[in-house]
Amino acid sequence: MTSRTERLRRDSLDAVPSIDAERARIITDFYKVHLGRHSTPVLRARAFLAICEQKTLWLGEGELIVGERGPRPKAVPTYPELTCHSAEDLRILDSRPKTSYRVAPAVIDVYEREIIPYWTGRSLRDQMFQELPQEWHDAYAAGCFTEFMEQRAPGHTVADGKIYRKGMIDFKADIAAAEAALDVETDPEALDKREQLQAMAIACDAVIRFAERHADLAEEQATQTDDVERRQELETIAAVCRQVPAHAPRTFHEALQMYWFCHLAVITELNGWDAFSPGHLDQHLEPFYQQGIADGTLTAESARELMECFFVKFNNHTAPPKVGVTAAESGTYTDFANINLAGLLSDGSDGSNQVTHLLLDVIDQMHLLQPSSNIQVSRRTPDVVLKHALKVVRNGYGFPSIFNADAVVEEQLRQGKTPEDAREGGCSGCVEVGAFGKEAYILTGYFNLVKMLELALHDGCDVRTGKYVGARTGHPSTLKTYDDLFAAFSTQVRHMVDIKIRGNQIIERFYATRMPHTFLSVITDDCIARGKDYNAGGARYNNTFIQAVGIGSITDSLAGLKQWVYDKADLSLARMVEILDADFTDQEVLRQRLVNKTPKYGNDDDAADGLMRQTFRMLFDAIDGRPNTKGGAYRLEMLPTTCHVYFGEVCLASADGRREGQPVSEGISPVQGADRHGPTAVLKSAAKMDHIKTGGTLLNMKFSPSLLEGDHGIDSLHSLVRSYFKLDGHHLQFNVVTADTLRKAKAKPEEYRDLIVRVAGYSDYFCDLSEALQDEIIERTEHQAF
Amino acid sequence: MEVVTGRTEADVEACPTGALQAVGRKVTSGELTRELLHDRVFFDESGGGVTFSGGEPLLQAPFVIETMRALREEGVHTALDTCGFVHWETLREAAEAADVVLYDLKLMDEARHKAATGVSNRVILANLQSLAATHEHVWIRIPIIPGVNDDEANLTETARFLQSLRGIRQVQLLPYHATGEAKFARVGLNYALHGTVPPDDRTLDTMAERFRANGLTATIGGHS
User: Which residues of B123-139 are buried (b: 16+ CB within 10 A; e: fewer)?
Assistant: First the structure.
């Protein structure tokens, strides 16, 4: 780090997240005047333009990469047109002990006077909830699944290389050409398409205007400073902002600023999930880097400094806070922007380069919460690249996480993508796979596997809410064999997938017709060519994902029931259900047997792993290939973020020995502490799942740093990764920290503020996690030997 | 080993918490081979394999030899970690089945060897001479135990002896560590080395240099 980036980093770490009402005010004023005067896409684009023209700008001291979504770092705008916080929500955000957001009284005041009265009943969430059927509401309240799009727009997407080759003026030319080609005589949608295309052109103007205002501000600051060096920097910033995003970038600096304006545009127009991501940043920057080195305008050091400034920008952008139940579901400041390293080029050759190593150095130096990073490891990735990444991992920050690039490609080919599009794709969010710049790959919600078995044991009744949210699969006494039990469980899964998908289809149409994402459509193929929005099927590929949670817990629960109820016939299923409903009261011996004397997933034991495969196949068949509303299909992913904590809270005790309310297993990891045969057995068990049929799986492992000392430690970890990927494993991430350190951090958070741990698909500050999550991370098996 | 607790296998099976554990279990060579092959992908990727260690693996020589042969057929690399205190014929047969022999060498002086281990080292030294003449991959492993074998005289004699053996190149110095003390306590045994401090890095480096000066490749610790 340079002294500049050290200071910018420190300022970013010290900034306190807050809620800012400026965007809410601008959008509300705009809607009051313009609603009903334009088509929906044009209304949305013009609202976006209004924000770009009016918002308070920020150009901080010493910054080289400029632009903030809010009026200052970590000031988070709200999106009342999607979901409107109540005054009570805002007070809770201000006062809750973890991941709080400072809310000034003036913000609550403007909300009470202007924002809430206007949006109540008008916000997309309010309208959607009225349309969603009662069965959906009941299942949602029971914790059978969550719904991503109730508060945040479809997002989960990533830029490809086109924004480094084209400016907004070029995109506008494409838009004009598409508009000129419309034929009202033969195309009944031609008028709708014209509105959509005009909206996209307005979005291009909006982001150009936004950059010009930054150029003006930089010039103004330049005239006011006495510091000669800073004056030159400000003049450079102004020149950069006049070049991009209107035109394609020409230099390394312009390339980074180009991405950053696109990033801000995407996350300002709508609050899409997982913000936005730069994708294969090393591949995109490489030509600019080589050219800068060749013509002498850039050095490795100055390139690194620019990237460090760029990283600070991500860290300044705290996730928009949610309301209601989803606050518990994902309690983090992280907004899941994720950078891909290495991987493959579109022709299938190795994609790693010099910038890969520079970025790894930056990640190691900065170790910020955001952006996350991952390395895409293909058979073609040189060992030296992976080992460099593992050395960064060893320093204990949990990133980069590690992906199997060959599996990522194969997964996409199965979904029908071209090899080139698949290779230009990669992973974003936690572990999700998509074709960058060409796909709307929408995550729709977590799916509670443990709850499905609970419903099968209660004839479809959710005991906690007292409602029959599931299918009527019969009293436990009628489930005479293990096959009967599994059939009942399968019926519950299919029933709930049906409810979930029926809800999703409604929600998809709401976004398609009422909440287009006009700027994102500009930079996503083939929205311009099709004259359709990103949210309405304009993208080349449209996959919709359901993320199953608790495969470890469900496997062990099935194993427990199979062994003690059916194979050994120690007790009847009805009796077992009574015991589970009573949370093992006076049944500690049975609970211990379930925990210690039953086959467990994660030990390379086919007795347990076979049940995992059976469950996975059933789940896959229930979801994969079902059509969505955008010409694409539903797909399965296996990842939890932090939802395994919430899902555990709403579940009764389960037959794996888990007590009522305790977290279920996360990702495809074994139940916490159930793996007792070391990391190789965990990997073998996990690899028995057919990863290629998913859109991503998440496997978390924890090592103490001592295990990874020296070259030998790195070599061992390297072999472990390559072995898992040889078995088609999708993703691995490592927590390198001792349980003891974590316990100390829990006791004295003030001394461990900067302690970052891998949570589940992302890293977070340990001290910002809930106590339940902290305990769980401490408990996760600390592997002591390879 | 004798059952220390007087409990039976049935008791272990019945214990719900898993607190009562049997130390060791009976397996056939076929079962063990199948279990070891579960990790084949990791052996392939890392160039690793299976090390038969102990205790003393050659106390169960026929079982170990059968298993190593089965693994060789599957292309899995094997190593035999032995103290060498066995009949030459047994060692010869076992060594033939192993890709690498890790051979312990503790003390050169017969009387001191007897005092420290309870047996003479004559067979051990003779076996090593024969082994060095017939096996290509013999690695010598010397535990460095302060106050037992870390003295000048013993190390000098060890280095000279090894230099005289054709085919011996690799020497590993294994610094004493105290992680076994807790285990001794758990099974109710007296730990004779209580209070022994592990050798420091500088001492170990000096010792390694001595072996290198004698034309040997010496490393500290078990990693090659």
Answer: ebeebbeebbeebeebb
CB contact under 8 A, B41 and A715: no
End-to-end CA distance of chain B, in Å? Answer: 32
pLDDT above 90 (res A339): yes
3-state secondary structure A594-641: HHHCCCCCCCCCHHHHHHHHHHHHHHHHHHCCCECCCCCEEEEEECCC
Backbone φ and ψ of A69, nearest 5°: -70, -40
Per CB-CB distance under 8 Å, the chain B contacts of A596 are 16-18
| Cα(A731)–Cα(A701) distance, integer angstroms | 11
DSSP A67-119: --SSSSTTEEE--TTT----HHHHHHHHH-SSS--B--HHHHHHIIIIIHHHH
| A139-177 pLDDT per residue, tens | 999 999 999 998 899 988 999 999 999 999 999 999 999
Chain A, 426 to 485: residues with Cβ < 8 Å from chain B are none
| CB contact (8 A) between residue B42 and residue A604 | no
Q: Which residues of A are catalytic?
A: 430, 432
Could you give the domains of chain B? 28-95 (3.80.30.10), 105-224 (3.20.20.70)
Token digits of residue A778: 């401490």
Secondary structure percentages of chain B, helix, strand, coil, to 5? 45, 15, 40
Q: Is A446 helix (H, G, I), strand (E, B) or coil?
A: strand
The pair of three-digit structure tokens given for residue A762, joined into one six-digit string: 């992302």
Q: How far apart are CA A150 and CA A139, in angstroms?
A: 15
User: What does the block give as tokens for A640?
Assistant: 């939890």
- What gap in Å lies between CA A687 and CA A696, rounded to an integer? 13
pLDDT of residue A552 exceeding 70, the answer is yes
Angle between helices A482-514 and A134-141 (to 10 degrees): 120
For residue A714, what are its two tokens?
């790195």
Tell me the one-letter amino acid at A596.
Answer: N
Tell me which chain B residues have a C-beta less than 8 angstroms from the C-beta of A726. Answer: 41, 44-45
User: Which chain B residues are closer than 8 Å to A715 by Cβ?
Assistant: 46
Q: Which of A152, A28, A151, A22 is nearest to A75 (CA)?
A: A22
* Terminal C-alpha separation, chain A: 35
The single-letter code of the amino acid at A387 is K
Check if the interface score ipTM surpasses 0.90.
Answer: no
User: Nearest CA of chain B to the CA of A106: how many Å?
Assistant: 58
Identify residue A512 by its one-letter amino acid code.
A
CB-closest option in B13, B46, B223 to A719: B46
Q: Indicate the pTM of the whole model.
A: 0.91
How far apart, in whole angstroms, are the C-alpha atoms of residue A284 and residue A255? 8
Of B18, B42, B44, Cβ closest to residue A680: B42
